[in-house]
Amino acid sequence: MTQKLWTKNYILITMASALGSAGAIAGGFALSFFVFDETGSTLASAFVAFIQLIPYTFVPILVSPFMDRLPRKSFLIAGDIINGVLYAAMGAWLFFFEFTYAGYLGISFLLACLGSIDELAFTSLYPDLIPHGAEQKGYAVSSMIYPVLRVILMPLAGILLDTLGVSLLLLGQSVLSLAAAITESFIRVDERQRKHQDVYSLRAWGQDIQKAFRYLKKERGMLSMYEYMAVTNGVGRGYAPILVAFFRTAPGLSAAMYSFFSVVEFAGRTLGSTVQYRINIPNKKKYGFAFLVYQVYDFMDMCLLWLPYPLMLANRGICGFLGSNSAIMRESAVQRYIPSELRARVNAFNNVLMTVGASFFALLIGFLGEVLDYRWCVTISGAISVLASWLLIWGRRKDVRKVYEAETQTDGTD
Q1: For residues 198 and 303, is the Cβ–Cβ distance under 8 A?
Q2: Between the CA of residue 408 and those of 20, 224, 277, what are the distances in Å?
Q3: Each residue of 128-159: pLDDT tens digit?
């Protein structure tokens, strides 16, 4: 029987997510401009982004076995508290002392480590806070939080940066992180601790990791979905600088025109999330719908830069709508399908795979941008995603379909 979505736990985790996202958006915006203002170097800013990416390649794998044995809520609360303390320390330092690039690199690395842990804890705990049968609506709400806040807060952060300065903005982010931790502390969830008689050892850690790998080896549908998302998300992040370069160099286009891509994508994603919240798609139809969306989305990428500007905007709006629909269905199906005792480790593998994919395709597509027309770079990127969807989603359709259709049947493992 389907229960109502807006339980006390779900309201609390949604509030905490909104508080944390608001702080991250405002603080991240302020710091990105602040670093460039202080260094005057795009390379220095890019290196910060690179440093922040490194922890996502190994921290989830190191931490996930512990997270599957211990209460995940504790990881979530502790991460937000430490995050709040660090941002308060940064704000106080910049208020009284001068900026140091080396120090900022170090604290960026530490914050990225915390961010990877927090993301893993949230992803692994969130399914346990959604009432049975309301998964699709739950993930529809979750998918709207970040883009809505981003549209609201990005202009506001720009104004506050100029009027208040980066120090006060970081102190504000600290307050929001601590408020998120306090909100999470009121969540009541029965997290059964995995009992083990022996002291946890390196050998036990290795066995836990091996168990997750054996699970993924057996669940070919899950692995195929993860591999496809690593490719398509990696390609999307890889051609983002190509779009910037194209709008900077193509006659009649400008950076302001490119900025409207975010607006129409936001509108499309919001509409898609609303549809998923209002309309329940039967499990039997989800695989076919998802595969159709992948084909249309990737084709839209292939033709994006060959279109006149008004059709480019329409293209991004449609992709936002379709992408939101498929992401919500996929996430709700996958998280309910994974056994609770393995969820952190399996999600950790996905996080690492996505990071590696993003890094690889950023370099590959960046290289193509040096030797090919920008339009062909984006077309090739879309073609890579099309090939991946046929090989991994259609080629293993029996296994992938099982994940979608078994969404509500495996909940008993929690």
Answers
A1: no
A2: 30, 20, 17
A3: 888 877 888 888 888 888 878 877 777 787 77
